[in-house]
TrEMBL record:
<feature type="domain" description="Arb2">
    <location>
        <begin position="37"/>
        <end position="334"/>
    </location>
</feature>
<dbReference type="InterPro" id="IPR053858">
    <property type="entry name" value="Arb2_dom"/>
</dbReference>
<feature type="region of interest" description="Disordered">
    <location>
        <begin position="187"/>
        <end position="240"/>
    </location>
</feature>
<dbReference type="InterPro" id="IPR048263">
    <property type="entry name" value="Arb2"/>
</dbReference>
<feature type="compositionally biased region" description="Basic and acidic residues">
    <location>
        <begin position="206"/>
        <end position="240"/>
    </location>
</feature>
<protein>
    <recommendedName>
        <fullName>Arb2 domain-containing protein</fullName>
    </recommendedName>
</protein>
<dbReference type="GO" id="GO:0035197">
    <property type="term" value="F:siRNA binding"/>
</dbReference>
<dbReference type="GO" id="GO:0031048">
    <property type="term" value="P:regulatory ncRNA-mediated heterochromatin formation"/>
</dbReference>
<dbReference type="Pfam" id="PF22749">
    <property type="entry name" value="Arb2"/>
</dbReference>
<dbReference type="GO" id="GO:0005634">
    <property type="term" value="C:nucleus"/>
</dbReference>
């Protein structure tokens, strides 16, 4: 058996002595502050400057996550509270800067039913030529956002879809912004308690008194531990899904069926980031013929789809090879062709190794891709028209010659 050295015994004794002198009441005073945070950017003392960067109003410094060094959970809650304000700010920009409007879904929702919404330009459903559909990834991002982290730590251009919407409008697109993560209503669960009644106390047998006392002591210890480890218990909530929109995949399918499929646009273009790419491929699995007939180009950015796990057909894979392009995170220069790991669609470098940045760094390349597709379609149409004219002219000449 290994012998404990004198040095180890001294260290153990010193540690026990230190622990015995810790004032538990003082520890209790070091609990984290309440989770009550400002409701506006101004109250947070932050604002977006002329370059779309979030800056402290007083110091001009970027957002600081560790506002309190030793309180990570509190800092995280503060960051989330700011994120909710950012979401509302982006909604406001969609409405004021991009002149978009909300359409609530389900379109036949009852009065008390949970709802979600998408954003559309006024001509999204009536534009006869082009419609652009934007689908973000999963998580906390809502309509109009690619990455909340970029909005807070970098700028609005890189983190939101606003530059894409503005460019599309300038080029004559109708635009539809999906909202696949706004898919539930969160309600607080009512507190349930079962206090011991007076009758129960009177029925306690004397032999149980010691056990009951021990239980109380154990309960106090547990309460102290819980308070120190997790000082503020968050309210328990339950999520009530939005009908037919309870997941990103369901949402994309619903918007397709009720809006995109009936839109007047001859050509539909899609930009889908991360999990949005998976949701698009699932749409292909569910509405293959319709999508092929209406969609002419799909720009994916670091898409999370997997044709094997999603069991796509060979016909879908072939269509994706011709119609889609995936800009993926890579150290290679922008647009460098990369080996395709799966036989679905071409992969090129997004010019960045940061997943959340892939949409923004690919911005110019995506619109160039769309322009090339449109030029090819217009050329094909002109050739078809030319052939029809030539055929008719030839028919007229042959009839004239017969006479």
């Amino acid at each position: 058996m290994a012998q404990v050295s004198q040095e180890d015994r001294e260290k153990t004794t010193a540690l026990k002595d230190l622990l015995s002198r810790i004032d538990l009441d003082e520890l209790m005073k070091k609990d984290e502050p309440p989770f009550t945070f400002p409701k506006t950017l101004e109250e947070f003392e932050y604002a977006f400057n002329e370059n779309g960067q979030l800056r402290n109003i007083r110091t001009g410094e970027p957002y600081v996550f560790n506002a309190r060094e030793d309180l990570h959970r509190w800092n995280q809650k503060r960051y989330e509270a700011l994120g909710e304000i950012i979401t509302q700010h982006v909604y406001e920009l969609l409405e004021t800067q991009c002149n978009m409007r909300r359409i609530y879904i389900p379109i036949d929702a009852k009065e008390e039913e949970p709802t979600s919404f998408i954003y559309v330009t006024n001509d999204a459903l009536s534009n006869p030529s082009k419609l652009l559909v934007l689908i973000q990834g999963s998580g906390v991002v809502r309509a109009g956002q690619w990455a909340r982290r970029l909005i807070i730590n970098q700028d609005l251009d890189s983190g939101t879809q606003i530059p894409f919407i503005t460019r599309a409008i300038q080029e004559g697109f109708g635009v539809m912004v999906l909202n696949p993560n706004e898919n539930y209503l969160e309600k607080e669960k009512p507190e349930t308690s079962s206090p011991v009644g007076l009758a129960d106390e009177l029925l306690d047998e004397p032999v149980e008194k010691k056990e009951r006392k021990d239980d109380k002591e154990n309960s106090k210890k547990k309460e102290f531990y819980e308070k120190y480890r997790n000082p503020q218990k968050e309210a328990e909530t339950e999520r009530i899904p939005v009908r037919d929109n309870g997941s990103s995949e369901d949402h994309v399918l619903y918007v397709w069926d009720h809006f995109v499929s009936g839109a007047a646009a001859k050509n539909v273009f899609i930009i889908a980031h991360s999990y949005g790419g998976l949701s698009f491929v699932e749409l292909m699995n569910q509405r293959e013929i319709e999508v092929k007939n209406k969609v002419c180009a799909v720009a994916l950015t670091d898409s999370a789809h997997n044709i094997w796990l999603q069991e796509t057909t060979k016909a879908t894979q072939d269509w994706m090879q011709q119609t889609c392009c995936n800009w993926v995170s890579s150290p290679e220069p922008l647009d460098t062709p990369l080996d395709s790991m799966l036989p679905d669609c071409p992969r090129v470098s997004a010019g960045t190794e940061k997943h959340e940045l892939t949409s923004w760094t690919s911005f110019a390349s995506i619109f160039r891709f769309f322009s090339e597709v449109l030029e090819a379609l217009e050329y094909e149409e002109s050739q078809e028209t030319s052939n029809i004219v030539t055929t008719r002219s030839g028919t007229h000449k042959s009839k004239h010659q017969d006479l």
